[in-house]
Every structure is written in structure tokens, then in C-alpha cells.
Amino acid sequence: MTREQLFEQILNKKSYLCIGLDTDPLKLPQHLLDLEDPVFEFNRQIIEATADLCVAYKPNIAFYEAQGPQGWVSLQKTLQVIPKDIFTIADAKRGDIGNTSELYARAFFENMDFDSVTVAPYMGADSVKPFLTQAGKWVILLALTSNAGSQDFQMLRLEDGNEEYLFEQVLRTSQEWATADQLMFVVGATQADYVQRVRQVAPDNFLLVPGVGAQGGSLEEISRLGMNRQCGLLVNSSRAIIYASSGYDFAERAREAAFAVQREMEKLLEELL
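== Orotidine 5'-phosphate decarboxylase ==
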């Protein structure tokens, strides 16, 4: 999917919502547990209930890896029921030496046909570039995350006289590897105070923004600070939507939660674009 196609979906749906499929077998509704593949059935119903309200789905790969071989089967089946015009994100946070990254890229882009994968930049260019070799596929690079530990490294000041943070150097250097047509950045919604600094360095790139909803980030604040002329945001919500109910009505409640976010996004798009 190209950047223009993604923007077209945002305009058509009046939404920049990404729904995280962080599907935990321990949190599934009880009535699904006797099925052959309860994780897939849960995902299928969530997707069916929300596909017209979001522009992306983001399975967190750890939730599927933890289930062993069956988890990979559930994930593959889930990908097959996601409509083709919806952007897919493998939230895998991979990154290793070149030949290993090549295999990770093959796994997610060729075998599973994800549109994008989250990548950790700590090992530098040769750990990221193998993910950038396939046309139409995206790298979403960790830049400024929403966890408390982000302070340990991402917020370190560089000793170069420019008073830049380390995350800003990550943004600046990584743009030498790819354009905004193939490179996005993860920027946590709880880091809203720094979004303006992100946009000064990366004005054109899409930002994947987790942390809205259960983690307490503000959709309005992150939208006002981070939106660019092509929206430039994919705002993720996981638990607040998919676990809105643990009963028979879980899909209906998920739709209601997603609809509330989409309505707010529609108003923000009308005002800010």
C-alpha cells in the first residue's frame, strides 16, 4: 500500500484508527473457549465488527508466538480475513544483523504478506535496510515510545552542542535510509510534549501512535500536534476496543468503542486538515 492509498482510506473512512489485535487467550470470552481456534474466532468477529471504522490492524506478534505453532496458524488465518484495503502491521519489533533481518523481512512480507513491520533501530542501518528492499512494504521504526523505560536511552542528550535527544538523532539518521513513502515512526501518545520536536525532524512521515485509550494518551492532543497535510497519523487503540466486553456482546461493544473513536477522528480531520 502506498502513502497515497493510505491517505485515501483515511479520507474515505474519516478515520485514522489502527486497532491492535493483542489477543490474549486468558482474556477471551468464555463462550469462545470450546471452539477449535478461539483466538481466530475472536479476531474474526472483531474485524467483522470494526473494519469500516479503521484503516489499519496491528497484531502484536508476541501474543501469537506465545501460543506456539497454533498461534502462528491463528495469525495467518486472521490476516486472511482482513480486507485487502486495510493496512496491516506486524508489531514484531525486530532488528538484527543483516542476514537475520533479511529472514525476518521474508517471514513477515513474503510468507505472511503484512504491509509493514515494526523494527528496532538500536543496531543501526544494516539491521534496518533489509526490511526496506521490498516495494510496497513499510518499516515502522521505534523512535519515541510510551513506556516508562523510554527515558533510559531515548531521552539522552547528545554531546554535540545541538541539545538534541537520542530519539531525534534516530529520526534524522534513519531518513537517510528511506523516504516517507516507506518509513514510518512509532511515537507514543503519552509523549505528546515531544511530538512537535518529532515533526520538526520528520514532517512528512506517518507516525504510528500507540498509547491512546487504556494507556491514557489524548487523541485530541496528539492529533493537533502531530497531524500533517496527509494526516500522517495512525493512532492505535487495542485493549479499550477489543476488550470492551468479555461477554457474548464483545464484538458489538468493540464496534461501539471503535465508533466513538472514529467520530472524534472525523471531527479532528474536518478541523485540522
